[in-house]
Task: inverse folding
C-alpha cells in the first residue's frame, strides 16, 4: 500500500516536532550552563588579564548583567538566528569559530564512517553467516581487539607505520578539500582510518548479532522452504531485516564522530570541533562551550531524524503504524 | 498403485552425540494425509524437517533415506542431498506451512512479493505473470479483497489471514506434498476450523498429499487418513486414523486419547449454595488509548461487563483472542485500570488503591510457565518472595517451612525448592507458579490460560490438581481459557465473551446443553469432534 503525501507529511511533522522539543530542552540546559558554573564565568575567562574595565566590558558584551528571563529570551532569539555570542577568550563570534572548524570535522566523520561501513558491513555479515567457523572466530577476536584498543594508541601505531616507517602519509595537519583534493585525502587518511577502525570494530559486532538474530527468525526458514537461491534468502530476507539495528548503530557512531573525537584530533593536530571544545574547556571559555554543545546537539538531532526517516523507508510497520 | 509421494526409511537424526529420532519408516500416499502426533519433545517437527531436507540445526546429522516422488518427474533422495537439489525440491515439489503466522512471514515485504518469489525461482515466470498467479492464489485461499491485499504487508492482516497467505505461498507452485507443521495451533478455534476446511478443500481440488504435524489428536482426527504417534523420537503406533481412535493398541496412544480435553466431561462437584458471593463485578469498562499516525483512538477492551462469583465456585471465562478476558484478570489484580465500574471482594473494593492485606487475597497464575518464573531464582525463592513481601506466615513458622508445605500441596518433593526453573519441566514449573500464587492464602485464584501451553497429558494432571486444591482449600477460581472442553470440566458457571462484551452467562450445565447465543454455538461447533472425520465419511 503506497503512502499518501499527507501521511508522509504527518510522519515527518511528528518527527520534526519531537526534534524541536528536544532542541528547546538543549537550549535551556546550555543557557543554564553559564549560570550554574561555580564562581564568576567572566572572572574565570579573563584570568590574569583581569581589570575592572575589561570585566565590565565583557560582562556587558555577553549580556550577563541583565535579568535571567531576559537573558534567556535574547539567548534563544539570537541562537535561532545563528548568533551564539562572542568567545570570552578571543572576542570573535562563536558561530564563526564553529563554522571554521566544521569542514575539518565533517570530512573526518564522513571518511571515518565510510571506512567503518566498508569494513564492518562485510565483516559482520560474513562472520554471522559463518558462525562458529574459523573466519568467524578471527573476525570476532579482531573486532574485540579493535574495541579494546584506545583510539589514540591506534592513531600512534598508524603514524608509526605509515609515516615514520614507510613515509607514505603525513602524520598531521589539515588542508581543506576545496583547496587541494590530493593533499586533503593524504592528510585525512590516517585520522580517518583511526576513527574508522574503532567504529568498524564496534559496528562489526552489532551487525554480526543483528544478522544472527534475523537468520534465526521463522520467516527466514519460510524463505528457505520456498527453495530460493541462497543469495536471495540472505539479501532479501536476512539483510533487509537486519538493516534497522545497523542503521541505529551507524547513526550513533556518525554522531559521536561528528561531536568530536578529541584525542584523535589532538594526536593528528586536526583542527576539528573536538579540539575546539577541548581548548575552550581548558580556557573556561563558556560562550564557546555553549556554542559547541549546541552545535553538537543539533547534529545529533539531525542524524537521528535522518535515521528515523530511513527506518520508515525500510520498515512498513514504522511508516504505516 | 502409484508410488508414495514421500517414502521415508530408517530416518535417524542426531544432534551432537545424542540421537533424537530413532529410525523412523513411513510413507505418504498420493492425495492422502499423514498425521504425525506427539507431545513436545517427541521429535515430530525434527522428523519432518529432516525428511524434507529443511533441517538447519548446528551439529545435526541425518541418516537413512527419504525419497520424494512426483509422477513423471521422477524420484529424488533428500537425505544427504546437495543444497542445489534441495532448492529445486523446496517450494516446487514440497510446500511448507509453519506454526506461527505472525513470525513466519517477512514483515518488510508485500504479500505479492512473498508469493511471487517461489514462482520466479521455480517457474521462471515474469514478474507480471507471477503477480497474476499470486492474485489467483489469494482468491483460492479465500482472502477478502485479494487485489488490495497483494500490496499489503503482513502486519496489516489478522492471524487467520496470515495463515491463509502462508498456505498460498506453500501451494504457489502446485507441490505434490504439503508439509503443515502445527498450522492451526496459534489460531483461535473458529479460525482453526476455517483453515482445516480450506486445506481439505485445496487438497481435494489439487490432489496434494499432506503431512500434518500436531499435538492435538482432535485436529489430526479431522485431517488425517493415517496417523503416526511419536514419543521420544520413536514410532509408538502407525495406523489408520479410525482404527487408531477406536482401538488404540499402545498404552501411550490410549493415554493421549484419554487425556485430550473433550466436551461432555462432567464438571466439578456442586458448591454450597450458602457460601455467598465472593467477587462482585458491576459495569466494568476498560479502554486503552492507541496512538497511530492518524491520531489517537481507543480500544474498547472490556465493555460494560458484570458478573458474580460464588465463594468456592469456579467461573469460567471463554472467548477468542482479543475478547477482553485477560484484561478482566489484569484489572482485578491491579495491572490495568478500568475506565468505569466496580469490583468488590467480599464487599471490599478491589479496584484502585488497595491495602496489601486485601490485594493478597487475589492471586494469579499466568499462562506461560517458561517466562513467568525468574530464571535466576530457585523455585523455593520464587515461592517465598511473596511471603516476605507480606511478612507471612504470621503464625510463627518460618517461610522455609511454609515453602515446603506449599510444594507438598502441589505434589512436588520438598527438595524442588533448590531447583532453578530450567531444571524443571513445563508441568513442574506451572505447579511452582500455583504454589507461589497459593503462598498468600488467597480467596480468589485467577487462572489465566494457566494450562494452555502444557501438553495434554500434563494439562490433565494440573487440572486434577486444581480441582483437588479447590475442594481442600475452599478456593474460588476465575478460570480464563479459550478451550471450551477444559472450561466445561472446571467451571460451575461460564461467561462467554466476544469483543469485550458478555454474549452469554449461564450455569455451565445449562450453557453446554443449550447454548443460546449464536457465538457460543459457533465456538462449540468449531471444536473438532471426538470421532475422526474419516469415520463419518466411511459410514455414510
Result:
Amino acid at each position: 500500500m503506497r503512502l499518501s503525501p499527507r501521511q508522509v507529511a504527518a510522519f515527518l511533522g511528528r518527527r520534526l516536532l519531537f526534534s524541536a522539543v528536544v532542541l528547546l530542552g538543549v537550549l535551556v540546559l546550555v543557557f543554564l550552563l553559564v549560570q550554574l558554573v561555580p564562581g564568576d564565568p567572566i572572572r574565570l575567562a579573563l584570568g590574569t588579564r583581569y581589570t575592572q574595565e575589561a570585566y565590565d566590558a565583557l560582562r556587558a558584551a555577553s549580556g550577563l548583567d541583565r535579568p535571567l528571563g531576559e537573558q534567556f529570551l535574547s539567548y534563544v532569539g539570537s541562537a535561532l538566528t545563528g548568533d551564539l555570542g562572542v568567545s570570552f577568550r578571543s572576542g570573535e563570534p562563536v558561530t564563526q569559530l564553529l563554522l571554521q572548524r566544521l569542514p575539518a570535522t565533517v570530512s573526518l566523520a564522513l571518511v571515518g564512517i565510510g571506512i567503518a561501513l566498508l569494513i564492518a558491513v562485510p565483516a559482520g555479515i560474513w562472520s554471522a553467516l559463518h558462525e562458529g567457523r574459523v573466519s568467524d572466530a578471527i573476525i570476532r577476536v579482531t573486532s574485540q581487539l579493535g574495541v579494546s584498543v584506545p583510539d589514540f594508541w591506534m592513531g600512534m601505531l598508524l603514524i608509526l607505520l605509515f609515516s615514520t616507517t614507510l613515509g607514505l602519509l603525513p602524520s598531521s595537519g589539515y588542508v581543506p578539500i576545496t583547496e587541494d583534493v590530493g593533499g586533503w585525502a593524504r592528510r585525512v587518511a590516517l585520522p580517518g582510518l583511526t576513527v574508522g577502525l574503532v567504529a568498524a570494530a564496534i559496528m562489526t559486532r552489532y551487525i554480526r548479532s543483528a544478522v544472527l538474530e534475523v537468520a534465526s527468525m521463522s520467516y527466514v526458514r519460510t524463505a528457505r522452504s520456498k527453495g530460493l537461491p541462497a543469495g536471495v534468502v540472505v539479501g532479501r530476507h536476512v539483510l533487509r531485516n537486519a538493516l534497522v539495528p545497523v542503521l541505529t548503530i551507524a547513526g550513533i557512531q556518525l554522531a559521536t564522530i561528528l561531536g568530536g573525537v578529541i584525542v584523535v584530533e589532538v594526536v593528528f593536530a586536526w583542527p576539528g570541533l573536538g579540539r575546539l571544545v577541548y581548548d575552550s574547556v581548558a580556557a573556561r571559555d563558556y560562550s564557546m562551550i555553549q556554542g559547541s554543545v549546541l552545535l553538537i546537539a543539533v547534529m545529533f538531532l539531525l542524524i537521528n531524524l535522518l535515521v528515523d526517516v530511513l527506518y520508515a523507508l525500510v520498515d512498513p510497520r514504522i511508516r504505516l503504524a | 498403485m502409484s508410488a508414495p509421494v514421500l517414502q521415508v526409511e530408517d530416518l535417524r537424526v542426531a544432534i551432537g552425540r545424542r540421537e533424537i529420532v530413532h529410525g523412523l519408516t513411513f510413507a505418504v500416499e498420493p492425495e492422502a494425509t499423514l498425521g504425525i502426533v506427539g507431545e513436545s519433545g517427541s521429535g515430530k517437527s525434527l522428523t519432518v524437517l529432516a525428511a524434507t531436507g529443511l533441517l538447519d540445526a548446528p551439529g545435526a546429522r541425518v541418516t537413512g533415506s527419504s525419497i520424494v516422488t512426483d509422477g513423471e518427474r521422477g524420484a529424488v533422495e533428500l537425505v544427504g542431498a546437495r543444497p542445489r537439489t534441495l532448492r529445486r525440491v523446496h517450494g516446487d515439489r514440497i510446500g511448507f506451512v509453519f506454526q506461527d503466522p505472525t513470525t513466519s512471514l517477512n514483515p518488510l515485504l508485500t504479500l505479492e512479493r512473498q508469493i511471487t518469489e517461489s514462482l520466479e525461482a521455480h517457474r521462471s515466470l515474469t514478474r507480471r505473470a507471477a503477480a497474476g498467479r499470486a492474485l489467483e492464489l489469494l482468491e483460492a485461499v479465500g482472502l477478502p479483497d485479494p487485489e488490495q491485499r497483494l500490496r499489503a504487508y503482513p502486519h496489516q492482516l489478522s492471524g487467520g489471514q496470515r495463515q491463509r497467505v502462508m498456505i498460498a505461498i506453500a501451494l504457489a507452485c502446485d507441490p505434490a506434498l504439503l508439509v503443515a507443521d502445527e498450522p492451526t495451533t496459534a489460531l483461535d478455534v473458529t479460525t482453526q476450523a476455517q483453515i482445516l476446511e480450506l486445506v481439505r478443500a485445496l487438497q481435494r481440488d489439487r490432489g496434494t498429499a499432506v503431512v500434518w504435524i500436531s499435538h492435538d489428536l482432535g485436529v489430526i482426527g479431522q485431517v488425517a487418513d493415517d496417523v503416526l504417534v511419536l514419543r521420544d523420537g520413536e514410532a509408538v503406533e502407525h495406523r489408520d486414523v479410525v482404527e487408531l481412535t477406536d482401538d488404540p493398541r499402545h498404552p501411550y496412544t490410549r493415554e493421549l486419547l484419554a487425556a485430550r480435553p473433550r466436551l461432555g466431561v462432567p464438571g466439578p462437584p456442586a458448591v454450597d449454595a450458602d457460601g455467598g458471593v465472593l467477587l462482585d463485578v458491576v459495569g466494568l469498562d476498560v479502554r486503552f488509548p492507541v496512538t497511530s499516525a492518524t491520531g489517537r483512538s481507543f480500544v474498547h477492551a472490556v465493555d460494560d461487563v458484570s458478573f458474580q462469583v460464588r465463594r468456592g465456585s469456579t467461573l469460567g471465562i471463554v472467548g477468542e483472542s482479543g475478547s477482553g478476558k485477560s484484561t478482566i484478570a489484569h484489572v482485578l489484580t491491579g495491572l490495568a485500570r478500568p475506565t468505569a465500574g466496580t469490583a468488590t471482594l467480599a464487599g471490599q473494593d478491589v479496584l484502585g488503591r488497595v491495602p496489601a492485606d486485601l490485594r493478597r487475597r487475589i492471586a494469579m497464575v499466568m499462562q506461560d510457565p517458561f517466562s513467568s518464573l525468574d530464571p535466576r531464582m530457585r523455585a523455593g525463592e520464587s515461592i517465598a518472595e511473596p511471603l516476605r513481601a507480606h511478612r507471612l506466615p504470621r503464625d510463627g513458622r518460618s517461610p522455609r517451612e511454609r515453602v515446603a508445605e506449599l510444594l507438598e500441596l502441589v505434589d512436588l518433593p520438598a527438595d524442588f525448592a533448590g531447583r532453578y526453573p530450567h531444571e524443571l519441566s513445563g508441568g513442574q514449573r506451572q505447579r511452582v507458579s500455583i504454589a507461589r500464587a497459593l503462598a498468600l492464602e488467597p480467596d480468589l485464584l485467577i487462572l489465566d490460560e494457566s494450562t494452555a501451553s502444557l501438553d495434554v497429558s500434563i494439562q490433565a494432571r494440573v487440572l486434577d490438581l486444581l480441582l483437588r486444591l479447590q475442594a481442600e482449600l475452599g478456593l474460588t477460581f476465575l478460570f480464563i481459557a479459550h478451550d471450551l472442553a477444559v472450561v466445561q470440566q472446571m467451571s460451575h458457571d461460564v461467561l462467554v465473551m466476544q469483543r469485550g462484551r458478555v454474549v452469554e452467562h449461564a450455569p455451565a450445565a445449562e450453557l453446554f446443553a443449550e447454548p443460546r447465543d449464536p457465538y457460543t454455538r459457533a465456538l462449540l461447533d468449531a471444536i473438532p469432534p471426538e470421532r475422526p472425520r474419516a469415520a463419518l465419511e466411511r459410514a455414510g
Notes: Chain A has 14 helices and no strands. The mean pLDDT of chain A is 86.
